[in-house]
Amino acid sequence: MSNKKPVSGLTSDVSLPRQPSSSFRKAIGASEAATGSLPLTHITDGYRFRSVIQTNSLDPTYCRVYEKPLLYFFYGRPSYRANQQAQSSSIEAYAPICFIIDPIFDFEIAGIYPFDSGAFHRQLLEGAFHHAMIKEDFALDTDFTTPRRLVRLFFGDMDRYYMNRPRTDVSIPPMDYEVASYYGLIKDELKNDYDERISAIEIQTEKSMPLSDSVLAIIIPDNFLVSQPVVDFIQKLNIEAIPYDYISRLRPEQYTSQIYSLVRAYYRKKGFL
Amino acid sequence: MTRRRGARLVGLVNPIGLTPAFVIPIFRYGNSNELLVQVIGGDGLVKAFQQIEIHDLPLHEIPERTVITSGDLSLWAFEFAPSDYAVGAQAAISKTLAGRRNELRRHPLLDLQVLRFRGMRSEVASALTLANQHIHEMSPPSAELWRELVVIPPLVRRAILHDYKGRKGLINEKSLQNIDVIVRGNLVSVVAPANIEQVLATRKTLPATIEHELGGIAAAFGLMPYVFSGFNRPAESRSERARAKPDLDGGRSEHAHLLLRTARHFKSRGRFPEAIEAATRALQIFESIVDAEELGEIAADTKFLLGELAIAVGQLSEARKHFEDTALAYQRLSHGGAKVLESEFRAAQVTIRQGHFDEALKTLQAHILPHLAALRIRPLEAEALGEIGEVLMAQKKFAEALDVFQHHQLPIYRELKDENSTVMTLGRIAAALVSMGRINDADKVLNSKAMDSWSSL
Predict the structure, then answer these.
(1) Contact list, A37 vs chain B (CB under 8 Å)
(2) What is the DSSP letter of B407?
(3) Residue B309's closest CA among B296, B298, B322?
(4) What are the sequence ranges of the domains in chain B?
(5) Residues A138-168: pLDDT tens digits?
(6) What is the fold, at CATH topology level, of the domain defined by B236-354?
(7) The model's pTM
(8) Of B30, B175, B251, B330, which residue is the least packed, with the fewest Cβ within 10 Å?
(9) What CATH architecture does domain B372-457 belong to?
(10) ipTM of the assembly?
């Protein structure tokens, strides 16, 4: 695990409307860390996967939100990155490929956010926050213990975080508006357009990630295992491949939970949960 | 009345970029630029259409311009090769796939998908075997994960749903996801949250339903042809468990308990070799976990079970050793007195079956019997007396045997009001009398009132 990197976590070079608030970051920094660590996940689709097996690395791609190349992960949960618009589905949801990254793999973190910051940027979460709040108010210390601190503060433990079951007893000091807004968002059980990404911890890096040392497992449509380049890739990297039932996933009622269940079962088998 | 809006099929998208493969039919409303996919219900009918973003994936436009609306049969598509595709309702695609199955056989996982799509359940087990081999050749750990995480859990969950079908309540498609199906080695266990566990525990037919659902698939994967029928406590989080009780063994004791229950199940069904295998593995795990007295006791219980199983398969030397080990294991526990004696008694019984009468008699009379009497463990004391009497009979010491049966064993069974054992002892008394030539006395015993209950045995 990396040494503590007490930087602000701000990843954007674009000019900000004001100096970000440090209230949320301080609240997380003051929390104890939850026991254990979860792997990171990175999801791509079959189309992009073909370039991954050629380079043996995950590479940043240009991000319009931050206006620079970034590589995204979620802490623990296999949350989908591509499906940004609540009313629209994405083809990636049909055949996702999920990389599970070893939690002890060290890399340079560019930013950590407590939610899908792209959704915040697109104002998909605006109902939960004051209109003057900016996503940078929620930028966290780029330290590997930060996700564990957030999990401890808002969820209690890793299993509850994975299942998106927030604690109900978090006491929030007066005037900590960002903390109160975030807590209100993740506890919102009313019908809305949000999905679990409202509380999926987002981790960004500006660097490529070599797969040879970092990947524990890959969850992949079973169709891919007929492809010799894919078989070679798995054997070369000596990673565990978990082929999932692709045809089931074509039934929309199946695909929302299938990868989630598989990853959770994998974590339980390997002792992460 | 609102008119349903029809969507026109415009092309196919292959999200994995490989063929042959199932691909996704893409639709449009009228001249709209928005691309749509079907939302298909459990009945196979179109429930609605949903906007889809295909990003940089190519849309393979096709000349078929079928228009469907919600409520129609959903459309499926399969691409055998670029520009070689079939699109239609599930039945039509199934027919096409059946006719071209030979083209798919070299792709075991795809063949498996197709069989499932066609509903050919009887052929799935053999296809699973081939697919398993295919993955195993690529990566043995991956084959194990596929079996444990992908194949088995849905089958077990489906069995639970089928078993519960028609009854309103907690168990539905959604709540099934809260039921953990854990495959460890060649055993399957089910862990359900407490509220669901209470429901499942009442389903006596469930183990058989699960066993039926797994059917030949269990064999294909080398699973024991038996599924644990118990339901553990809810799957609390690891940290909650840690707070309640230190997690000393990383879940190994849970696994060993599961194996032990499985062994007992096999024993109850007379499947002794499988029971021995499960109990032996349980014992190995228990013995590898230190610092827990309760595990010491369960390990000793496991040894005792192994002794009983060894007797059942005629392995008397092993049985004796197991019981002697068990006695030593119980001696190390603070509360194991009665169990020590029982283990020593079972070891002595084995000694008798091995024909070592003098050795057994000495142990029983000098050690076991006095302690059983002192501790007032009456049923075992009576049983020990019966063994002593039988040894004396075998040694042709009929008068001594008669004394044991008549004046020591019989009073205990009468005191315990154990009618069956009383009748059995009277039979032994009669046999001793016959051996002594006292035919009339034996006749009196056999015609005594106490023997009336013989007919009801």
Answers:
(1) none
(2) I
(3) B322
(4) 7-100, 120-233, 236-354, 372-457
(5) 999 999 999 999 999 999 999 899 988 899 8
(6) 1.25.40
(7) 0.67
(8) B30
(9) Alpha Horseshoe (1.25)
(10) 0.82
